[in-house]
Amino acid sequence: MGLPLGNAVAFDPVIPTPGEVTLMATIATRPKAVAAAAKALSTEGSAVSVIEDSPGFAVQRVIATIVNIACEIAQQRIAAPGDIDIAVGLGLNYPQGPLALGDHHGPALILEILDALHARTGDPRYRASLWLRRRAEAGLSLTHTAGSPLPAENTPAEQETA
């Protein structure tokens, strides 16, 4: 027995953010259902953000796009992967560079998010870099030298069992 559509609220299980939950209401979700879900989650100590019904969640879109842009830079040989991460980390005060972030979540997951967003929206900004696609399909790291496999904890088999 499913939840009535007017009470349906989704949260992002793909890229969790500790201490924060993003809720997405469908076009049929009643405002009272969103408010009740937000209240219940905030009572448990989570910061709650609410977004409108859309393909993908805000965090998924931003992370996948940042990683993809860094992959384009690497593909064009504008900078080496390590230099891209250092430049972005220092220039934008990110705790880690975009390619390290891609490795953290797994290149295959980033590619899956981009492919789904591109298929759903047709927006060219979500077209995955060929450099990202080749590395994700081969199970290679985005940050390590050519041919380096992903660290064991980020391999697709490990992600599925985690």
Report on this model:
With 162 residues, this protein is mainly alpha-helical. Helix content is 50%, strand content 9%. It is built from 7 helices and 3 strands. It has helices at residues 31-43, 58-75, 81-92, 98-105, 107-121, 130-138, 156-161, and strands at residues 9-11, 20-25, 47-51. The chain has a 3-stranded mixed sheet with strand order 1-2-3, with helices on one face. Strand 1 (9-11) and strand 2 (20-25) form a beta hairpin. Helix 4 (98-105) crosses helix 5 (107-121) and helix 5 (107-121) packs across helix 6. The two termini are 28 Å apart. Mean pLDDT is 83; it is low at 152-162.
Low-pLDDT stretches are: 152-162
Shape: elongated
| Average pLDDT level | 83
Which structural class matches the secondary elements? Answer: mainly alpha
Taken in chain order, the helices and strands follow as EEHEHHHHHH
Extended strand count: 3
Q: What topology, given as strand order, has the largest sheet?
A: 1-2-3
- For the record, give the distance between the C-alpha atoms at the N and C termini, rounded to a whole number: 28 Å
Cα-atom radius of gyration? 18 Å
Describe the largest sheet. Answer: 3 strands, mixed
Helical content class: 40-55%
Number of helices: 7
